[in-house]
């Protein structure tokens, strides 16, 4: 029987996940189907009902996207360390009557940077803007890449500080506000993990953080040159990327977790890439 998977979110019309997983399944010859489900926003407990109905109908696993990542985490019976730190799940696996939660956003981001863009983070100064769900999922994989320094800046400084304290890597991981960045010099890699670009806004980051020989990475994808990437370009940065590679890599990690086989990603990233210029 064909194994059933799905992505659940709201809105969900924009999702590329069925396309990505369909291509993965074709390439690796897996007998599986992957659909998109619009999850209910109200009442509060309705999301769990949607997941349980999919599971009861024989579903093997789900991807979870906004705004349900916290709810998916909360309803799991078992959670990975990455999911625990993020307090959020972007992938679920249903096995032996249990729900297992994972969060592959961070590993997808790190793999895109280190493998696809060929930018090892070891020994580098890395700046991450934002302290929301995506950053929470990314901090452990970032630290595992052994940067010389990892700075997390957020508008709400308390949020960044709480997160850094929770991770507990003093001397290596530093939390600050945007103003503090002016005195910190330039970074080898600057990652915009805020949602500012979704509304065409720019986080208040000083252009001094960019190095012309460094890289600017924008988590939002498919929007071309965002205000953040434009700021980086104006500061002389040549290396720029958006989050399409992260999207495909987190999908590949979930696929491997579910199916035990790792799909290739390069051709799909190329197919989905919207040129930055
Ligand atoms: P959250 O809503 O959890 O967090 C949003 C973050 O953005 C907060 O730190 C918030 O700061 C900050 N922020 C929002 N607007 C501004 C602004 N105008 N200036 C400065 N900071 C701002 O979002 P997520 O962490 O889940 O996602 C962040 C982004 O990453 C989204 O755009 C999402 O689309 C993208 N993403 C991409 C993925 C991919 O596969 N490519 C996967 C996951 C996410 P504060 O706390 O101060 O309010």
List keywords for this structure.
2 domains, six-stranded parallel sheet, Rossmann fold, 36% helix, 12 strands, single chain, alpha/beta
Explained architecture:
- By secondary structure, this protein is of the alpha/beta class.
- It folds into two domains: 3-103, 3-Layer(aba) Sandwich (Rossmann fold), CATH 3.40.50.10860; 106-242, NAD(P)-binding Rossmann-like Domain (Rossmann fold).
- Helices cover 36% and strands 23% of the residues.
- The chain has ten helices and twelve strands.
- Helix 6 links the parallel strand 7 and strand 8.
- Helix 1 packs across helix 9 (244-259) and helix 5 (105-116) packs across helix 9.
- The mean pLDDT is 96.
- It binds NADPH dihydro-nicotinamide-adenine-dinucleotide phosphate.
- The site of NADPH dihydro-nicotinamide-adenine-dinucleotide phosphate (NDP) has 25 residues, from helix 6 and helix 9.
- NADPH dihydro-nicotinamide-adenine-dinucleotide phosphate binds at residues 105, 130-135, 154-156, 159, 193-196, 198, 201, 203, 219-221, 243, 246-247, 250.
């Amino acid at each position: 029987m064909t194994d059933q998977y799905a992505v659940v979110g709201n809105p969900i019309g924009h999702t590329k996940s069925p396309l990505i997983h369909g291509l993965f399944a074709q390439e690796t010859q897996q007998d599986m189907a992957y659909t998109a489900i619009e999850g209910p926003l109200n009442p509060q407990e309705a999301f769990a009902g949607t997941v349980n109905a999919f599971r009861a109908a024989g579903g093997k696993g789900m991807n979870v996207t906004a705004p349900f990542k916290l709810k998916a985490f909360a309803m799991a019976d078992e959670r990975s360390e990455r999911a625990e730190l993020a307090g959020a799940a972007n992938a679920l696996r249903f096995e032996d009557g249990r729900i297992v939660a994972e969060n592959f956003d961070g590993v997808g981001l790190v793999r895109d940077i280190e493998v696809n863009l060929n930018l090892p983070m070891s020994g580098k100064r890395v700046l991450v803007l934002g302290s929301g769900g995506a950053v929470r999922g990314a901090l452990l994989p970032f630290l595992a890449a052994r940067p010389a320094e990892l700075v997390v800046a957020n508008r709400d400084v308390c949020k960044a500080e709480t997160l850094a304290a929770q991770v507990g890597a003093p001397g290596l991981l530093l939390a600050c506000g945007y103003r503090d960045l002016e005195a910190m010099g330039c970074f080898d890699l600057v990652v915009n993990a805020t949602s500012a670009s979704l509304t065409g806004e720019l986080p208040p980051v000083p252009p001094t953080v960019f190095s012309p020989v460094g890289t600017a990475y924008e988590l939002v994808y498919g929007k071309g040159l965002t205000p953040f990437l434009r700021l980086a370009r104006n500061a002389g940065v040549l290396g720029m990327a958006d989050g399409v590679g992260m999207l495909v890599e987190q999908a590949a990690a979930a696929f491997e977790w579910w199916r035990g086989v790792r799909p290739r990603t390069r051709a799909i990233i190329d197919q989905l890439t919207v040129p930055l210029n």
